[in-house]
Specification:
It is a single chain. The protein is built from 4 helices and 8 strands, in the order E-E-E-H-E-E-H-E-H-E-E-H. The protein has 156 residues and is an alpha/beta fold. It has helices spanning 39-51, 66-69, 99-115, 145-155, and strands at 2-15, 18-23, 26-32, 55-56, 62-64, 72-77, 119-122, 129-144. Helix content is 29%, strand content 37%. The protein has a single domain (2-144), classed as 3-Layer(bba) Sandwich (D-tyrosyl-trna(Tyr) Deacylase, Chain: A).
Length: 156
């Protein structure tokens, strides 16, 4: 699974003008299930996001995680994180999980993040959403469970 994580002062997602998810300080997490992903990847990504130390401590260093700050997460599905632009200017999305699996894993990720004690709000899978955020820092981090797996194997 892939995620683009942004530290935010606030974020909201609207569908058809109605707010469906909203948070104050915390993380906006744009998430994409890739073909071949399963619940293990959703759980691993959720644990990583919950423990990602990108909030400032008393000394001003990025040393605190979402779990330390009590912040919330706004989780929004975004299959375009699977974009392949290697063949020209029109991205392809065949690396993304099929919609049924994508929705299941998106919801599994949100549930796993909540199970870590994080307050979670969500967008609406498959909807045309308007996402509004105030990025703090700015801090934006790319996470990919496939890359993490390769890093773990090379560290052994």
């Amino acid at each position: 699974m892939r995620a683009l994580v942004q530290r935010v002062a606030r974020a909201a997602v609207r569908v058809g003008g109605a707010t469906v998810g909203e948070i104050g300080e915390g993380l906006l997490v744009l998430v994409c299930a890739m073909a071949g992903d399963g619940e293990a990847e959703a759980a691993a990504l959720a644990a990583r996001v919950a423990r990602l130390r990108i909030f400032r401590d008393e000394a001003g260093k990025m040393n605190r995680a979402l779990l330390d700050t009590g912040g919330a997460a706004l989780v929004v599905s975004q299959f375009t994180l699977a974009a392949d632009t290697s063949r020209g200017n029109r991205p392809g999305f065949s690396a993304a999980a099929p919609p049924e699996a994508g929705e299941r894993l998106y919801l599994a990720f949100a549930a796993a993040l909540a199970a870590h004690g994080v307050a979670v709000a969500t967008g609406r899978f498959g909807a045309d959403m308007d996402v509004e955020l105030v990025n703090q820092g700015p801090v934006t981090i790319w996470l990919d469970t496939a890359q993490q797996g390769r890093a773990n194997k090379s560290a052994q």
